[in-house]
Amino acid sequence: MTSTRPYGEHVPAPGCPTQYTRLYEPIPESGRDALWARLREEHGSVAPVEIEPGVRVWLLLGYQENLAVLQQPHVFSRDTRRWREAVEGRVDLSRPSFSWRPNALYADGAEHTRLRTPIVDALGRVDMATTERTVRRIADELVDSFIADGRADLVSSYAAHLPVLVVNSLYGLPDSYGHMLGDITSIVFDQDAKRGEEGVARMHQYFAGLVARKRNRPGQDLVSWMLQHPIGLSDNEVAHQAALINNSSHMASTHLIGNTMWTLLTDSRIRTAHTEALVPVQALLDHVMWSNTPFQTLLGRIALQDTRLGNAQIRAGDALLLGFAPAHLDPSVQRDDHGSDTGIAGGSRAHLMFGAGPHACPGRELARMIASTALSVLHERLSGLRLEVAPEQLRWTQSPFLRGLNELPVTFVPAAPKGPQEPDPAPRPRRTATTGPEEPEDLLDRLLNWWRGLRG
Ligand code: HEM
């Protein structure tokens, strides 16, 4: 319950147990969209919520409020160390869900520019045509691993692997390292805290080892380009920016592919329109990013001064939870498909899925290409694609931050695998009679050996 001051400011009644909506509780039967609508009705464009017991933040429900916060870095900082809860020791910023890391995402002003510029310049050097061929090769190999079975889980066998393998290839490493990185990432998010800690340590080794290898043997890849950048980041800084690239792309790309496949499999109007080429794949992706957004909410921004947002009186040190999904349902920007034969409202890229302002996603074109290639390969290779279970039986992640499927079981007509496409990028040279001494084992080799042992 909240009391309302004369001018509409929401002030939670002291001690009232229901004043903060608990986003960490199971999603209500009526669904998330109904929850966002209820919060908007009760609070207007900004609502007080809890993201963990006792951890309170302001959820931005309005499109304009989200945009205003993203575009005013001098008022709303990205540096989570400024959050009152962190300053006063009530939240631990080393945890994956409330993190601070020494990378561009958590930096403001000149420091942000210093860390972001090498990332943007390195991504700018990526040859999109070559990378598209790499994405296709990786996608084909993943499809090969299940196409003869006539059934597969498109999340665990496809969408969860593709983005990390692509980023790994942009680091200039063979695919085996990408499979290892994917496994390490899932250990980081393991429910068992001890295993989670081991995952974080192994992740650190992966990126430290990657940078050390590229320092010794530079190539045409993202990490070598960041190391060579005139801004002169240290090796440790490059390791953190390389990790940021993987972390930023992994889950979002996985769920973008999964949610788009779900849309095609469950909405016959959209499926037909897409098959008949009435809806280009990019418009389909925009539709999903509006209506079935992988990043539902994102923590966030920290207010640097007392300020008013919607009906809420924000205090310096308060945290704001960006509400992409609620913003996309804001009546002021609601798109509808009235008059459309395709089930898709007129194409618009004004959704907030890639952010806005100084931190706007520098990988958005790459993300779109990865997702569209992933969908094209499935479309070309799996005929007679159907959901294996009723749509209501599918399980969605319960996280208040993400919307994605735990699994997407499908059936299709079994077919023969294509077989290996091209050789994997060159492995490190080993000793032969003619090449001389073996290169000494480096940190990445040791990590790969550990991982192979783990897989048995
Ligand atoms: C569907 C896929 C993706 C989505 C939805 C997405 C979304 C976002 C969003 C919303 C932000 C801004 C966060 C904020 O303002 O707090 C962001 C930042 C970032 N993204 Fe992406 N991203 C995706 C894929 C990628 C890919 C493929 C890359 C690179 C290969 C990438 C690299 C980054 C980096 C480095 C940042 C930090 C930029 C900064 O803080 O200045 N992202 N992304």
From TrEMBL:
GO terms for molecular function: heme binding; iron ion binding; monooxygenase activity; oxidoreductase activity, acting on paired donors, with incorporation or reduction of molecular oxygen. It comes from the Bacteria. It holds the Pfam family p450. Keywords: Heme, Iron, Metal-binding, Monooxygenase, Oxidoreductase. Residues 412-441 are annotated as: Disordered. Belongs to the cytochrome P450 family. This is Cytochrome P450.
